[in-house]
Design a protein that fits this description.
There is one protein chain. By secondary structure, the protein is an alpha+beta fold. The protein has helices spanning 2-25, 64-71, 99-103, 281-294, 311-316, 335-338, 358-366, 419-425, 443-446, 466-475, and strands at residues 75-83, 111-113, 118-127, 133-136, 146-152, 158-160, 162-167, 172-176, 198-203, 211-222, 232-235, 247-249, 255-262, 276-280, 300-301, 304-308, 325-330, 346-350, 353-354, 373-380, 383-390, 392-393, 412-416, 433-438, 454-458, 461-462, 481-489, 494-502. It folds into three domains: 66-294, Beta Barrel (Thrombin, subunit H), CATH 2.40.10.120; 300-393, Pdz3 Domain, CATH 2.30.42.10; 412-502, PDZ domain (Pdz3 Domain, Roll), CATH 2.30.42. It is built from ten helices and 28 strands. Strands 1, 2, 3, 4, 5, 6, 7 and 8 form an eight-stranded antiparallel sheet that branches. Strands 9-10-11-14-13-12 form a six-stranded antiparallel beta barrel.
């Protein structure tokens, strides 16, 4: 027993000596600075949720009020008077794709004056500079149809606007009023837009001026028309008829899209169901520069039909991935043919930049101005090679037909065909006079001539220039008939027929 007592006293004494050493001889560590983020968090309360919860994140402030106050004064109401053909009666909202999507092809008039075939359409635009330039949609102020454009600002000031330029390919238009010191909105960087971020739309839906709606970006890079140059931002911000041309705005107060189209719930509705489309600001910025300088957008082409790659093609052609676009066909006498491109070539780069798919290739080529070099990296029979093409213009401004004679007429406007213009119009016939317009009620109209038909001969004389036609008219007395050999082309065949038309 004494032995155990001695061991206990010894252990206690040794413990005291060790404690004294620690407190007296070891240097004191400096106190660490207080860090509120390093404090131990209290244990979470028991939860019935079996899934781990994420760490709470600070949410950015959504100051809709400040953004609406900043951009709202730059938004304007646009009303345009437009000439329409007698058959364009509208469809009363009976299309499943509303407002602006089908209105581009089948206009939906607010009011109609049958005696003048004039309709009034309403929508939205916004100032992009203090000196009166306004960005809106092409389908609002189409060239050669629109006779008057009126602009009303948030302050209630009314102006007549001039059409500076239009671009059907992106559905954008630039108009201008004569005024200074105007409030304007800034175009932001749409490439930074992310799915799920908040956006505001401001416009004049159903004629309700300066209406603000909020939503999120639902999708990026949506394509709804393969023939257009669009890369839509999809949003569920409420967009209705009349929102066309208005801004889609991010939480920094920058315009990242121009509202263009909606999808509706079905026949007869015509209202918002949370699917709207906006043209990205990055596209708009490039278009505006050309519209201001040229009044239209000039795009490049090389003359190939292309298609996206499939997994089967990747395997069969021994490719590394589906990135790129395969050449379906090469147009005769095109830049692609001159560069010796062939069917089954896979284009993987344009001017050193990788190409993901056919849509991206189309955009890349379109951005190259006519006359510019296009260096293509292609894969042919497993070998990577480079070819160079010189871009030409995708759609030159269409020639307006001439009235052959001022004092003698049959009621048509014509333009002489050449191999180049025939290719642009998609015609197989390369000589003759293309009818570009038939005036209503004219002798040509009574003879059932129509735009798109080709006059091959007049009075059995071959027609190659407008002057040839003028000579025939001059030699024909008013009231007499001329005999025309006319050709009508379809996709499958061409049909020639004889027409007699009185000269007036």
């Amino acid at each position: 027993m004494k032995k155990y007592a001695w061991i206990a006293v010894s252990s206690f004494t040794l413990g005291l000596l060790l404690a004294g050493y620690v407190f007296l001889y070891l240097p004191e560590k400096p106190a660490a600075p207080r860090d509120v983020f390093a404090q131990a968090a209290p244990a979470p309360a028991p939860s019935a949720n079996l899934f781990a919860e994420s760490v709470p994140q600070d949410k950015p402030a959504l100051d809709f009020v400040s953004i609406a106050e900043k951009v709202g004064p730059a938004v304007v109401r646009i009303e345009a008077d437009r000439r329409e053909s007698a058959g364009a009666q509208g469809f009363g909202g009976e299309w499943p794709f509303g407002d602006d999507f089908f209105d581009r092809i089948f206009p939906q008039p607010r009011q109609r004056q049958p005696e003048s075939n004039t309709v009034q359409v309403g929508g939205t635009g916004f100032f992009i500079s203090a000196d009166g330039y306004i960005l809106t949609n092409n389908h609002m102020v189409e060239k050669d149809k629109t006779t008057r454009v009126a602009v009303t600002t948030l302050a209630g000031d009314e102006y007549e606007a001039k059409i500076i330029g239009t671009d059907p390919g992106t559905d954008l238009a630039l108009i201008k009023i004569e005024a200074k010191g105007l409030p304007f909105a800034e175009l932001g960087d749409s490439s930074r837009v992310k799915v799920g971020e908040w956006v505001l739309a401001i416009g004049n839906p159903m004629g309700l001026d300066n209406t603000v709606t909020a939503g999120i970006v639902s999708y990026k890079g949506r394509s709804i028309d393969t023939q257009s140059y669009q890369d839509f931002i999809q949003t569920d911000a409420a967009i209705n008829r009349g929102n066309s041309g208005g801004p889609l705005i991010n939480m920094r107060g920058e315009v990242i899209g121009i509202n263009s189209s909606i999808v509706t719930s079905g026949f007869g509705g015509g209202g918002n169901i949370g699917i709207g489309f906006a043209i990205p600001s990055d596209i708009a910025r490039k278009v505006v520069v050309q519209l201001k300088e040229k009044g239209r957008v000039v795009r490049g082409r090389i003359g190939v039909q292309i298609r996206d790659l499939t997994e089967g093609m990747v395997k069969q052609f021994n490719l590394k991935s589906k990135d790129g676009a395969m050449v379906n066909s090469v147009e005769p006498d095109s830049p692609a043919e001159k560069a010796k491109l062939q069917r089954y070539d896979v284009i993987v780069q344009v001017n050193g930049q990788p190409v993901k798919n056919g849509e991206e290739l189309r955009f890349r080529i379109a951005d190259i101005q006519p006359g510019g070099k296009v260096e293509l990296t292609i894969i042919r029979d497993g070998q990577q090679i480079k070819v160079t093409a010189i871009a030409d213009e995708l759609e030159p401004e269409k020639e307006k037909g001439q009235i052959a004679s001022a004092d003698k007429d049959i009621g048509v406007s014509v333009v002489a065909l050449t191999p180049g213009s025939a290719r642009r119009y998609g015609l197989r016939t390369t000589e003759g006079l293309l009818i570009t317009e038939v005036r209503q009620g004219s002798e040509a109209d009574r003879a059932n001539l129509a735009a798109g038909m080709i006059i091959i001969e007049a009075n059995r004389r071959k027609m190659t220039t407008v002057r040839d036609f003028e000579d025939i008219l001059k030699k024909t007395a008013k009231g007499d008939e001329i005999i025309l050999l006319v050709r009508q082309e379809t996709e499958q065949k061409s049909q020639d027929f004889i027409v007699t038309v009185k000269v007036r």
